[in-house]
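Structure (tokenized):
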């Protein structure tokens, strides 16, 4: 594991290294070259032994990789990782997602250029060619941007993003966390797992806002009864847009003086309803 972590630390620090960024982008145009590039940082045998992803057989288009469908791809992803006894603690580990991405490419589930998509430019191959073309002219801005994108989609935890990437940058990881949250919330509420997953799938920004507040700015949301109450409210009321963010902000204010964590989900749901009426 130390060798893998050392390799990860070396790789995630290439995002301002011109020579290595060019090598990464050039390799991402070809499966074998990309896997060979990664072997400069990791022993492939050790890397693949981290997670058994071999039973995932759903070959994905570029669009499907960017946003796997909750009805078709989510069940296969969950089943594959459930067989591997994948845990939430492992899901926070970028090495695990690196292993999964490596195997997905090796097994022809995805092509490496899929990893190069940007928020405003979803064609990975086009982004790579454009970045390399501009770099030849001395403009490295897009080179580094696409380098960061590839590493973000591969394992998430580049130095610019720290640990948040395993929740919001890796398509496979995003799907896994949505399923996991849906399963956990549905266990102790009246909400059905499929409805929670569909909400997260349809409202990508709300998933991101939800998970980042749980992990950072508004950790009170991570309290099980408050988290569940929030989901009960927003799904039943179909709360979206700016109203969603306002609800979360009001919970933060309310919880600063009221012990909401000591109440059950239904009691907290009533409090939330009183805050927004």
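Design, position by position:
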């Amino acid at each position: 594991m130390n060798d893998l972590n050392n390799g990860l630390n070396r790789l995630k620090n290439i995002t301002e290294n011109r020579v290595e960024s060019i090598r990464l982008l050039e390799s991402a145009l070809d499966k074998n070259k990309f896997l060979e590039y990664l072997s400069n940082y990791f022993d492939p045998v050790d890397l693949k032994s981290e997670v058994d992803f071999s039973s995932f057989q759903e070959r994905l288009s570029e669009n499907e990789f960017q946003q796997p469908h909750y009805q078709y791809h989510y069940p296969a992803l969950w089943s594959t990782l459930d067989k591997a006894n994948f845990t939430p603690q492992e899901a926070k580990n970028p090495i695990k997602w690196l292993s999964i991405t490596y195997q997905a490419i090796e097994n022809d589930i995805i092509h490496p250029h899929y990893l190069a998509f940007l928020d405003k430019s979803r064609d990975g191959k086009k982004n790579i060619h454009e970045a390399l073309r501009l770099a030849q002219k001395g403009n490295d801005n897009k080179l580094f941007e696409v380098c960061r994108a590839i590493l973000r989609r591969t394992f998430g935890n580049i130095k610019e993003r720290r640990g948040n990437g395993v929740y919001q940058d890796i398509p496979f990881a995003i799907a896994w966390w949505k399923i996991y949250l849906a399963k956990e919330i549905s266990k102790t509420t009246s909400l059905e797992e499929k409805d929670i997953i569909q909400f997260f799938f349809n409202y990508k920004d709300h998933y991101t806002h939800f998970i980042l507040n749980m992990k950072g700015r508004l950790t009170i949301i991570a309290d099980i009864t408050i988290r569940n109450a929030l989901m009960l409210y927003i799904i039943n009321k179909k709360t979206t847009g700016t109203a969603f963010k306002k609800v979360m902000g009001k919970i933060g204010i309310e919880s600063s003086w009221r012990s909401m964590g000591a109440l059950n989900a239904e009691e907290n749901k009533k409090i939330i309803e009183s805050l927004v009426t």
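Reviewer-requested clarification: The chain has a mean pLDDT of 90. The radius of gyration is 20 Å.
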